[in-house]
Design a protein that fits this description.
- The protein is α/β, with parallel strands linked by helices.
- The chain folds into two domains: about 5-205, Rossmann fold, CATH 3.40.50; about 210-285, no CATH class.
- The protein is about 20% helix and about 35% strand.
- The chain contains six helices and 18 strands.
- The strands form six sheets. A four-stranded mixed β-sheet has the order 3-7-8-9, with helices on both faces. It has a three-stranded antiparallel β-sheet with strand order 4-5-6. Strands 10-13-16 form a three-stranded parallel β-sheet.
């Protein structure tokens, strides 16, 4: 058997690229692997359930030697230290109606994979690429899996704000928390990239940090911080500095709904003139 395998190192992490992958090739390269990323085609088959009016479904991944269903794939991943499976194929996160375990991603979680990230529906290439880049940047920075998914979704939203592709990636989490690569049961602690410099750069790129600095705000002028429709996790840090006088209106971040995560806001002005206003933050609704 010939393996089309290439490896490269990034920040203390080894990346293995396996082209034209067969199931045997996947099995051979799995020992010691922490993250399994599949980039290819997924299929979802839906059929009538045993009870009238119900449906069930099963999913499979297209490898080079045929379709592989979730249970068979999980048996090949289990026992090799895989903590996270990322499925880049369309419909890999889809499930059938009320049947919770139908589909590839939920079935992998059912069969023991600690965390699975997958796509519910078809997704634009540019949105999928943006999601993956920011998602892995967050993991390299040592962020939890939940915060990594949030960072990836935000990146997908920034690419196509009018679409719904930011909501296509989903997370199935079987582990007790999102710190997948840490703890006494791990053979080694993983807090992102091994190199501190690489980890710091990755973390900074994955977190939303907004810095606004102006000299003066004239009468009738507006300075507005970022607008967030909904924040469910992660971290938002906003620094808004006016070195001179505010004669107009200055507003920090505006959040429609805040259900989780943390928000840090710093506002500073030399002087707030008569009739002017300075608002640190606006939050319309807290909680679900």
């Amino acid at each position: 058997m010939r393996l089309h395998l290439s490896t490269t190192k990034f920040g203390g992490m080894w990346l293995k690229l396996l082209k034209d992958a067969t199931l045997d090739a996947v099995q051979e390269t799995m020992p010691g692997t922490r993250v399994f990323h599949f980039a290819g085609h997924g299929a979802f088959r839906q059929q009538a359930g045993e009870a009238p009016g119900t449906v069930t479904g099963t999913g499979a991944l297209a490898l080079d030697d045929g379709m592989v269903e979730a249970e068979q794939l999980s048996l090949n991943l289990r026992g090799n230290g895989v903590r996270l499976v990322v499925l880049g194929g369309c419909e890999t996160g889809r499930r059938a109606g009320a049947y919770v375990w139908g589909g590839i991603a939920p079935a992998l979680a059912r069969f023991g994979v600690p965390a699975v990230v997958a796509h519910q529906y078809a997704i634009l290439d540019q949105c999928a690429i943006a999601f993956s880049q920011q998602f892995y940047r967050a993991l390299a920075g040592g962020l939890s899996i939940e915060r990594a998914v949030s960072a990836g979704r935000l990146a997908a939203y920034n690419v196509d704000q009018s679409g719904r592709d930011w909501g296509v990636p989903v997370l199935y989490l079987r582990a007790a928390d999102g710190e997948l690569f840490q703890g006494p049961t791990s053979s080694e602690l993983f807090e992102g990239a091994a190199e501190e410099r690489v980890r710091a750069v990755a973390r900074q790129g994955a977190e939303a940090d907004v810095h606004v600095r102006v000299k003066e705000v004239a009468a009738g002028g507006y300075v507005l911080g970022p607008k967030v429709r909904e924040m469910v996790s992660g971290k938002l840090s906003v620094e808004l500095i006016v070195s001179g006088t505010i004669y107009g209106t200055v507003v920090g971040p505006s959040l429609v709904t805040l259900t989780g995560g943390s928000v840090h806001v710093k506002t500073q002005a030399e002087t707030v003139g008569k009739g002017a206003s300075l608002t640190a933050a606006k939050i319309d609704k807290i909680g679900s």
